[in-house]
Amino acid sequence: MKGFRKLTIENFQSHVDTEVKFSDGLNVFVGPSDSGKSAILRSLRWVLFNQPRGSEFIRTGKSKCRVTLTLSDGVEIIRERSSSTNRYILRDPTGEEQVFEGFGSQVPKEVLQAHQMHPIKLDQDWNLPVQFGTQLEGPFLLSETGGVRAKSIGRVSGAHMIDIALRDTMRDRHSLSAEVRHLEEEKKRLEEALKPFENLESLLHQVQRAEGLYHEAEEKRQQLMRLKELKEQWNLIQGEVDRERSVLDRLTELESCGAILLEVERSQFRLARIYRLTKIQKQFMQERKHWQQILEKTAQCDTVDKQLTELEEQKKTVRTLQSVRDRRNQVGKHLFKIRQVLSSTEGLFKGFLEMDKVDASYQHLSRLSALLPRYQACQLEKKRTESWLSRTEKVQQAMVMLREMEQEVQQAVKLTQKSDRLRDVSNRLEEGRLFLKKNEEEIRIRTEQLATLFQQMGKCPTCGSVIDGSVMKHISEEYQGGGMTDAAAGRED
């Protein structure tokens, strides 16, 4: 916090143009009522903390007001307000200026760093300027609401960290619960998607069987091609046999035996060849019949080929489903880890409440032994609350109970203050008794000295009457325990 050198007020409430120079140490404003003393403090509060808000403090008949505060290091903070202007101006000792606008109800960070008077932030929407007191303001915190006092005491004792931790834990818990719900829904969706493929084992068996049939059909097709080639060869041989027979028919009218013999030899040769070809033809016919049967059996090759194509698609689908199954397993593992995290964080609330018990309750209630039964009752209720919190997720009810316990702590603080005042009064009474006892002893000593002097004189210095032993005894009794009335009566006697 820096010191103040000068304050200049222009058109702020009752001040038209006022300049106040501060001195080192304590500065006091004196004067009659309604002379502007409180307005000076309001202008100082306005330039430091942007309070009060609005524009009602602008002097009547004027459209603009300005307050300039010069700090001890030469930095100037200027606050201006009009119907169209609302800004801070920060001017350093070299004359360089920074203009701040659009800051709302807050104070620019640079201005706070300049005068170093930071208000204590008790909550997101509540700040307490402890460096500044207003006129007719009550004792510190007693004029504030119960919530503000509780938050102030909680910040001093560190209980606000528990509130922050509770909010963060609730937010993490909600996010994890949402993720768990999302994963559960994803799991159900994947399980529903996998139901049509529960018979994957039978489909895989069918695919393997179809692959075997496909290979067998390929072999049959190759055999069919060979049969077609053999059939073409057989047709060629059959044509040659027909040609040979026609030749034999033309040779029946030959007269030459040599020619006939030669032709017979040739015919024998050809006959032997035909015999062989006939034998081959029979074999071919048997094979043809055999392969014809095979062709009839393999007439459904196109259908098998189509089924094989469909099975290939199903194989791709199986691979996709296997990847989906792997993904489901990964999701299950991730879900298990999240549940472990949730189970491990269930004890945080008990830990936080234990911290509150150690850091807050013992610190404020240990000095008041008269509140021990009530403190024990609070502890018992606290343990019941912790047991209830470990079995439920209704954190909002826990927050309500926490606020009730904070109110009880506030009451305990009030009782502590009353006990301190009672102890102070008792100490003062004890000091008064000691003072009376000391004065009585001094009166006794002085009375004895006075009686000794009267005995030495033998008569009263005022009236001149003779003083004997009974008179001295009466005087001693009057001074030590009688009173003024009895003392006067003694003088008459």
From TrEMBL:
The keyword Iron does not apply. Keywords: Coiled coil. GO terms for biological process: double-strand break repair. Pfam families: AAA_23. Residues 6-315 form the Rad50/SbcC-type AAA domain. Residues 166-237 form a coiled coil. GO terms for molecular function: ATP hydrolysis activity. It comes from the Bacteria. Heterodimer of SbcC and SbcD. Belongs to the SMC family. SbcC subfamily. This is Nuclease SbcCD subunit C. It comes from Kroppenstedtia pulmonis. The lineage of its organism: Bacteria, Bacillati, Bacillota, Bacilli, Bacillales.
